């Protein structure tokens, strides 16, 4: 593995780069042509461009990407596309660049990337005025019960995640949010769908084990975050994808109205509250059981059910970030 400085120098000197862009994402379809033009104007040359029209083919597509032995892989799309890239690029001598073209762009926000297309592309142009740098950040790793993936060659990579593992009403929201509504209104589509589903959602009991100590709580929503954002909102002012910590927190208790008020507090106070507060448990490894067993949402994809084990893998992913990003 090269040092971060060596990889950054190779990219700045015109190293091999590949572009994967999801033209089916919320903004990808509309901005694909403009993104290609701005990338050319920025001086970033790609040995190959992979436009994605069928997201179900992303896994096999990344095999072709890796065969190019690139120094840089730029991925344009939403959190689902980026999460797929993270699983393939973690623990490799390759930098990931992100063009935030999705609805919530949680991972891009956690990397403190500009969310406008010109700003994101300026960041990718390392070695130029206004360009970014190569940093290494954490990824999460999980193992759930009955997960249909994660077996056979390369199975370990199937268990890597970028941003968050969730249990509860968000699983139903992810399954039922209308794609047409997402395209029209963006992030509010999730809140509108949650308001429709919550009256019929049953609370569950979670048993959370950290360092041999088990806590039991009741809730409608439990999250385990590697990144700093959820639903496009900051979790806490000091949350980071580069702190070697998972943040475990629930939204409300077994009462449905508490979920609504807790979500509102999350949105309003996230930029000011701290991970040191009682609302959070921070750890590098957590085991979760639930009653009844719950389906597990991993970066927007259903991946088995509880019990689930979640760990942090520190500094496992190289990424292009703004110069102002604090890389520890």
UniProtKB/TrEMBL annotation:
Protein name as catalogued: Diacylglycerol kinase
Top-level taxon of the source organism: Bacteria
GO molecular function: ATP binding; kinase activity
Database matches in SUPFAM superfamilies: NAD kinase/diacylglycerol kinase-like
Gene3D superfamilies per UniProt: 2.60.200.40, Probable inorganic polyphosphate/atp-NAD kinase, domain 1
One GO BP annotation of this record: phospholipid biosynthetic process
Domain DAGKc, first and last residues per copy: 12-146
InterPro entries: ATP-NAD_kinase_N, Diacylglycerol_kinase_cat_dom, Lipid_Phosphate_FormReg, NAD/diacylglycerol_kinase_sf, YegS/DAGK_C
Record-stated family: Belongs to the diacylglycerol/lipid kinase family.
Listed transmembrane segments: none
GO cellular component: plasma membrane
Record keywords, A-Z: ATP-binding, Kinase, Lipid biosynthesis, Lipid metabolism, Nucleotide-binding, Phospholipid biosynthesis, Phospholipid metabolism, Transferase
Residue stretches in coiled coil: none
Cofactor(s) demanded: Mg(2+)
């Amino acid at each position: 593995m090269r040092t971060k400085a060596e990889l950054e120098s190779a990219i700045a000197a015109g190293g091999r780069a590949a572009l994967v862009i999801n033209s089916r994402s919320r903004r990808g379809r509309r901005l694909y042509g403009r993104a290609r033009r701005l990338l050319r104007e920025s001086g970033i040359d790609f040995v190959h461009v992979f436009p994605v029209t069928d997201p179900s083919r992303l896994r096999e597509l990344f095999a072709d990407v890796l065969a190019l032995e690139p120094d840089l892989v730029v991925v344009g799309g939403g959190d689902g596309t980026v999460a797929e890239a993270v699983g393939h690029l973690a623990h490799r001598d390759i930098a990931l660049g992100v063009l935030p073209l999705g609805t919530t762009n949680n991972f891009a926000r956690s990397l403190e990337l500009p969310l406008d297309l010109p700003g994101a592309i300026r960041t990718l142009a390392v070695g130029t005025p206004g360009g970014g740098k190569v940093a290494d950040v954490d990824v999460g790793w999980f193992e759930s019960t009955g997960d249909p993936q994660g077996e056979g060659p390369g199975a370990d990579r199937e268990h890597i995640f970028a941003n968050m593992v969730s249990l509860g009403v968000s699983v139903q929201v992810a399954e039922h949010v209308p794609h047409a509504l997402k395209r029209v209104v963006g992030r509010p589509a999730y809140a509108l769908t949650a308001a429709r589903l919550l009256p019929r959602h049953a609370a569950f009991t979670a048993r959370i084990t950290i360092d041999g100590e088990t806590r039991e709580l009741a809730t409608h929503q439990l999250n385990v975050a590697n990144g700093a954002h959820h639903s496009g909102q900051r979790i806490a002012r000091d949350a980071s994808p580069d702190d070697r910590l998972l943040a475990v927190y629930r939204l409300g208790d077994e009462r449905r109205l508490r979920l609504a008020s807790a979500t509102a507090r999350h949105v309003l106070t996230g930029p000011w509250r701290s991970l040191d507060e009682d609302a959070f448990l921070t750890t590098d490894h957590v085991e979760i059981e639930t009653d009844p067993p719950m389906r597990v949402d991993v970066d927007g994809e259903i991946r088995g059910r509880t019990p689930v084990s979640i760990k942090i893998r520190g500094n496992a992913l190289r990424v292009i970030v703004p110069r102002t990003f604090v890389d520890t």
